[in-house]
Write a structure and sequence with these properties.
heterodimer; A: 502 residues; mainly alpha; two-stranded antiparallel ribbon; 21 helices; B: mainly alpha; 3% strand
């Protein structure tokens, strides 16, 4: 505990250098903008900015990318409340009561409560990360290849099971992702696989190329079909709730924090599940559920807190186990790898400056966001007014040039465009892209951990069931798998767990 | 075309991918002296992919669990194809004539219908040049101003 505090203080020394403060600020600003703009979500936002971080120090790069991620959670609320158009998917549920409050002339209160809730949720999640992260990673340091194999398998399966409406489609996406991760040189044997004698493929498919196409281009194409119409936002005044509303608001914030934290730890339980779950809970515990849908303040406070707590908590499995729990986490994991860092249990011991600097920056970033959101909220509303017809060509240009700048090669650009079309078709077929990107990034680790496990095993595949930790994880995996099959057969998969890329 | 039909086509595409990769996978050693070889994983992944593709096709044949997404038609389809087309133009021009020309032509194409022609051209030229300066000077990424033609 005390160790963590000291390390955190040292982290602040890293995060408080002027350039890291600047990158943190740029990150949260961009995050706000990405969150506000309908038609550009956090996944595509982070993916298309990866190339820009190339020349930076690793710590500054990741500080900025994480800022984009949690900043977008704040930004998404603004358009949901003001014009009834969610800026990103996690804020869909906020539209219900948030927009209703706007109609009653209480837009300021809705935004104020959302900002305060987001701040509390975000800060609590980062604090938990400060203390739980090192502990979890010290436990994970004792893990061998079999444990890692089973954890990765469970993580992937959870994502498939929780995202998307069909188990089969989810699995197809996951296995295509694994197959694509095989392209290039095999790290165990050194053999080149699926390269078709092309030297472009020898180093494998570039993660950023794939992410920019699958998320960036496909999103633009989807938006081209029916562009979101954003109306004129109303004037915002009065940011704080009435005195008698404070207790219920704070309780909703507290419950939202708890829900977001717990769901953030579970791979595949994305932030839309967290915010929806929080909304349902608020409605259940309310003395007068009929107020919901008519501008209930808890209906804004709870879900908005939950999605921010979720985004902080989602970093815990990433930092301590190297396990991305959502597509945005996968993109950030990709950025880690590009900057030569290995997320996982060794991160805290091998790169303490990096990890603690990043955690400290998140405290700072959340404070910046609170300031940006409370007094300056009116200014942000105007950003939503930037016409999409002007915006999307610029986004396409950024994606194109960003891909080109990775290696200065048009081959990458061509491949990115192919992935863009594949991503679009996948969205149309309702095959979850998120499952594909996560298995793609974990594929080679999954393979090497399995081969290592088998080479130290005298009992073949039984090794996964002979070591206690790996046995437990494997059994959970099997139960989850059996439950997903059962729910598929019984047709009980609800529409709530739709494939949303957060 | 119904969604079930497109689902079947997609299923056949995944099936083909699985079969092709399975055939290729047999070229890599399935087993080596220290345990499973480089072919082990690909063989299993392709094999499972084939099974999943078949299940997916069956699901679509029975009309169960079919995607509820609408495929674009009419104006929306045109818009989607137009964006893909203009990206291809950008790509080809970038190769032939470098970034500046490609960027201005690409942006003018997409702005054409939305703005008056001179606004579209000025806007495109401005944005293209801003990005040129941004990438070349701030991010130190060299964007070529000439291509195969000159």
């Amino acid at each position: 505990m005390i160790d963590s505090l000291f390390s955190l203080l040292e982290g602040f020394l890293v995060a408080l250098t002027w350039q890291n403060l600047l990158y943190c600020f740029i990150g949260v600003m961009l995050g706000m903008i990405i969150g506000i703009l309908p038609g550009l979500g956090p996944v595509s936002g982070t993916a298309l900015l990866i190339p820009i971080t190339f020349g930076m120090e690793p710590v500054s790069a990741i500080i900025m990318l994480s800022g984009i991620f949690y900043g977008s959670m704040y930004g998404g609320t603004i358009t949901s409340v003001l014009v009834n158009v969610p800026g990103e998917a996690a804020s869909v549920i906020t539209c219900i009561d948030g927009y209703e409050m706007t109609k009653q002339g209480r837009a300021g209160t809705a935004l104020g409560v959302a900002a305060i809730g987001s701040f509390i949720g975000g800060i609590v999640a980062v604090m938990v990360l400060t203390f739980v992260g090192p502990f979890l990673s010290s436990v994970a340091l004792k893990f061998g290849p079999p444990e890692f194999f089973s954890i990765m398998l469970l993580g992937m399966l959870m994502i498939v099971a929780l995202m998307g409406k069909s188990l089969i489609r989810g699995l197809i996406a996951a296995f295509i992702g694994l197959l694509l991760s095989m392209v290039g040189q095999d790290i165990v044997s050194g053999e080149y696989r699926f390269t078709f004698n092309s030297f472009h493929l020898m180093e494998g498919i570039d993660f950023a190329v794939m992410a920019m196409g699958l998320f960036g281009i496909s999103e633009i194409l989807i938006n081209a079909e029916n562009p979101a119409r954003v109306g004129k936002p109303p004037k915002v005044k009065g940011l704080l709730p009435r005195r008698e509303e404070w207790p219920s608001t704070l309780k909703a914030v507290g419950r939202g924090t708890g829900i977001g934290m717990i769901l953030g730890l579970i791979p595949g339980a994305n932030s839309i599940i967290a915010s929806t779950f929080s909304y349902i809970l608020e409605k259940k515990v309310s003395k007068d559920p009929s107020r919901f849908g008519k501008g209930a303040i808890e209906g804004v406070a709870g879900p908005e807190t939950a999605n921010n707590a979720h985004s902080g908590a989602a970093l815990i499995p990433l930092f301590s186990l190297g396990l991305p729990s959502s597509p945005t986490m996968a993109v950030i994991l990709g950025a880690f790898i590009m900057h030569g860092l290995t997320p996982g249990p060794t991160l805290f011991t091998n790169n303490p400056d990096f990890v603690w600097g990043l955690i400290a920056s998140m405290f700072i970033g959340n404070v910046m966001l609170l300031i940006l959101n409370l007094p300056l909220v009116g200014m942000w509303a105007k950003i939503a007014m930037v016409p999409y017809k002007l915006l999307f060509p610029i986004i396409l240009m950024v994606i194109f040039l960003g891909t080109y700048s990775l290696n200065g090669s048009l081959w990458d650009v061509g491949m990115m465009m192919v992935f863009g079309i594949i991503g679009y078709i996948m969205k149309k077929l309702d095959i979850p892209i998120s499952a594909m990107i996560v298995t793609f990034i974990l594929g080679s680790q999954l393979e090497s951990s399995m081969l290592q496990s088998l080479s130290i095993s005298t009992e073949g595949f039984l090794i996964f069931f002979l070591r206690p930790i790996s046995t437990v994880i494997m059994l959970i995996t099997i139960v989850v798998f059996a439950m997903s099959i059962y729910s598929t057969i019984k047709n009980k998969r609800s529409n709530l767990e739709a494939d949303v890329e957060i | 075309m119904t969604n079930a039909k497109t689902g079947i086509i997609a299923g056949v595409a995944v099936l083909t991918l699985g079969i092709v990769s399975l055939i290729i996978s047999f070229d890599y050693g399935y087993y080596s002296e220290i345990g499973p070889g480089p072919g082990f994983f690909p063989v299993w992944i392709s094999g499972i992919l084939i099974v999943l593709a078949i299940l997916y096709i069956i699901e679509n044949l029975r009309g169960k669990n079919v995607s509820s997404e609408e495929w674009p038609a009419g104006q929306s389809l045109k818009q989607v194809l137009f964006i893909i087309m203009s990206l291809l133009v950008f790509f080809v021009l970038f190769l032939l004539a470098g970034y500046i020309v490609a960027g201005i032509v690409f942006l003018s194409m997409v702005f054409w219908k939305e703005y008056k022609w001179y606004v579209a051209v000025l806007l495109s030229a401005g944005i293209t040049l801003i990005f040129y300066v941004l990438f070349n000077h701030l991010l130190k990424v060299h964007l070529p101003i000439g291509g195969m033609l000159f």
